[in-house]
Each structure stands twice: as C-alpha cells, then as structure tokens.
Design goal:
- By secondary structure, the chain is an alpha/beta fold.
- The chain has a single domain, classed as NAD(P)-binding Rossmann-like Domain (Rossmann fold, 3-Layer(aba) Sandwich), CATH 3.40.50.
- The chain is built from nine helices and 15 strands.
- Strands 3, 4, 5, 8, 9, 10, 11, 12 and 13 form a nine-stranded mixed sheet that branches. A six-stranded mixed sheet has the order 6-2-1-7-15-14.
- The model has no long low-confidence stretch (mean pLDDT about 95).
- Bound molecules: flavin-adenine dinucleotide (FAD).
- The site of flavin-adenine dinucleotide has 40 residues, from helix 1, strand 8, strand 13 and helix 9.
C-alpha cells in the first residue's frame, strides 16, 4: 500500500488527491490542510474560466492545463451536473485601454473573437483592444464539496491541521504532494511565492447574464455572473497580506463597476470578501523533488503558484500530478500491477 499525503485542501490539493485516487485506487490518500472548503482561496472566487495572472508560466503548459480543465467543466455541464457543481455557460467581453495581443489560449473557449473598433466604441473611446468569447464559470464553493465527497468515498482521509514544515507532513508518507498555495512560501521555502490581494463584492442582480471585464490599469473592473449572485471586482495588489475588507477598495470597485454597467446601481450588496491569490514570480511550479528526512528520502511533487487562474487550470495540473505520481510510484515501489 503506497501512502500518499497531499498538503493543501484548495482546488489543487483536492484535485490532485482525486486524480491520484482515480488512477491508483490502491493508494492510501490523506489530505492535510489548515483549511478546507468553504475557507480556501477558490471559495470566494467567481471561477471564470480564463487563464489570467499566470505570468511566467510557459504558454504550452497554460494551454494544456486550462484545456483539460475546460473539458472537465464541459463534461459536467453536458452531463446535467452544472447546477450541482456550480458550473454555468457564460458569454462576455474583455476590454483594454492598450493594444493586447491575442492570448495563446484563445482556441479553447467557444467562439473567441477580437472586437472591431465599432464594437469597442460601444463601451467608450478609451478602449484600444477587446475580445469576446463563451466560457464557463465554475464556482469552487459548489464543486469543491462534491470533489471532497468523492475523495472520502474512495477511502481518502482529511486532516484539518496546520503544519510548520513539509517534513512534518511527510512523516507517514511514501509520496508527498505539495499544493499549499501561499503556504509554500514558508513550507518549501520558496521566496518567489507572494500574495496578490483580491477584494470582491457579491450583489443580487439577476438581469446581469454576461461577464464584462475592463482590464485597464486606471479603471480596472470585472462583473461576473454566478448562479446566485454577481461578482464585482476587484483589486490585484501584489504583496498585500490584508484579509480585511478595505472600504476604499469597496468604493473603487463600486464606482468602476457601476460606471461601466450603470444598471448595477440598483443591485443589492450581499457579501464582500478578500482572498489572496497564491502567485509565484517564476510561474506555476509543478515538478518532482525530494525531501530528505532523518532516515529516508521522500519523493515530493510540488503543485503551487497558480495566481489568478487556479480554477481555470487545476484539473489539468491534477492530471499532470497523477502522471508524475505514476512514474515515481513505479520507480520506488515497482510495477503498479503489484501494488
Ligand atoms: C478575488 C479572487 C478571484 C479569483 N477569481 C478567479 C477566477 O475567476 N478564475 C480562476 O481561475 N481563478 C481565480 N482566482 C484564483 C484561484 O482562486 C486560485 O488560483 C486557486 O484557488 C488556488 O488554489 P490552490 O489550491 O492552489 O490554493 P489555496 O486554495 O490557497 O489552498 C492552499 C491550501 O493549502 C493549505 N495550507 C497552506 N499552508 C498550510 C500549512 N502551513 N499547513 C497546512 N495547510 C496549509 C491551506 O489551508 C489550503 O487548504 C481568484 C482568486 C481571488 C483571490
């Protein structure tokens, strides 16, 4: 029996645990985390599938991981599980006040187009480029509990506790998976991991059915419909650890969003929330490593640093974790058929 310990209960930890269980039902999987849903970073995110703020992650990896994740959401949607898993099909527009190149991932969502100058002019003369496509919103607060349930049904154990080193979690592990998000800054330690603070509001505005994003520095705003509320954002403040709602940010979000979509002025605010995107200046780290303990060496797979697009990439990353795990298990414990 190979004992796998996953550190992290966010989308990447739970996704990795499940991907390994599905591929290797013989493994005994345990997930150790300070917090599980509804208290992880993804739980407050709108969950728009759009690989965003993934700086310095190679394009081919962004494409591979985000395509696999898009396909997962398509499967859920097509199988009629959209409501239960918080997955909705959504059409919308992104605007920039500078020329932006077409992103490498543009072939994945449905019907991606660059806006013509006439189409951009509808929103104001300041926009120099823009795009429109159909994608999914996948709300982790709804799908994470369903994935966790499957992890448990497959025999996985959950342990809610804080660890102060990876060694502490590796004590009873034959293989360690590190999906600790921002925690990797201290646990690895990896000083290239930093927070990018995101504050959002949730409002009741059922008439808003399309997403609208103004990516300009001065008027940054996003409006993303979820199933029960519409998410208004936001901020992206690097190296800001403040988890409290900042009234000044609230005012800026409200002003920018109502300026680009005035009908929001009559929307009722239902919640405000702050999350810290687990960014990494070198991009996502997904690779094998080793941890030297007192009397043995434990193989480790790191999977952290997903910044502003963990919900858009987690399932592809989890599949890659499972593939690396297969190789490591084979190397350290012999052919998988013997497990
Ligand atoms: C405002 C906002 C909006 C966003 N919107 C989107 C969006 O629309 N689309 C999108 O794709 N992404 C979005 N994101 C980004 C996305 O939410 C993250 O990339 C993703 O949730 C990261 O998941 P994770 O599992 O890697 O990390 P996390 O969810 O942060 O999980 C880390 C886990 O590690 C555990 N941990 C850490 N340190 C320790 C320790 N010492 N001991 C024990 N456990 C530990 C934590 O408790 C937690 O369980 C948004 C983020 C924010 C903040």
């Amino acid at each position: 029996m190979v004992r796998v310990v996953v550190v992290g209960g966010g989308v990447n930890g739970v996704g990795s645990a499940l991907a390994i269980q599905r591929r290797h039902p013989q493994c005994q999987v345990k997930v150790v985390a300070k917090s599980f849903t509804p208290h992880t970073t993804g739980d407050g995110a709108a969950g728009l599938w759009e690989p965003y703020l993934s700086a310095n992650t190679p394009d081919d990896k962004v494409i591979q991981w985000s395509r696999d994740t898009f396909n997962l959401y398509s499967d859920w949607y097509r199988d009629g599980e959209g409501k239960a898993r918080g997955v909705s099909l959504v059409h919308g527009t992104g605007l920039h006040n500078i020329q932006q190149p077409t992103p490498a991932w543009h072939t994945i969502p449905i019907g991606y187009i660059n806006l013509s100058s006439e189409q951009r002019a509808l929103y104001g003369p300041q926009y120099k480029s823009g795009h429109r496509f159909t994608t999914y919103t996948a709300e982790p607060s709804k799908f994470l509990p369903t994935l966790l349930e499957e992890v448990k049904t497959r025999g996985g154990r959950l342990e809610e506790r804080s660890i102060s080193s990876l060694e502490e979690a590796a004590d009873d592990a034959d293989l360690l998976i590190n999906c600790s998000g921002l925690g990797a800054r201290d646990l690895v330690p990896d000083p290239s991991v930093f927070p990018c603070r995101g504050q959002v509001m949730r409002v009741r505005a059922p008439w808003v059915t399309q997403f609208l994003i103004d990516d300009s520095e001065e008027s940054f705003a996003y409006i993303i419909p979820n199933q029960e509320s519409v998410v208004l954002g936001g901020t992206h403040q690097d190296n800001n650890w403040n988890l409290e709602v900042d009234p000044e940010d609230t005012q800026t979000i409200w002003n920018n969003c109502t300026s680009i979509l005035p009908s929001l002025k009559s929307a009722q605010v239902v919640r405000e929330w702050v999350g810290l995107r687990p960014c990494r200046s070198k991009g996502v780290r997904l690779e094998a490593d080793e941890l030297k303990l007192f009397n043995r060496t434990v193989p480790v797979i790191h999977n952290y640093g997903h910044g502003g697009c963990g919900v858009s990439m987690f399932w592809g990353c989890s599949q890659e974790v499972a593939s690396i795990a297969s190789r490591l298990i084979h190397r350290h414990h012999g052919p998988l058929s013997k497990l």
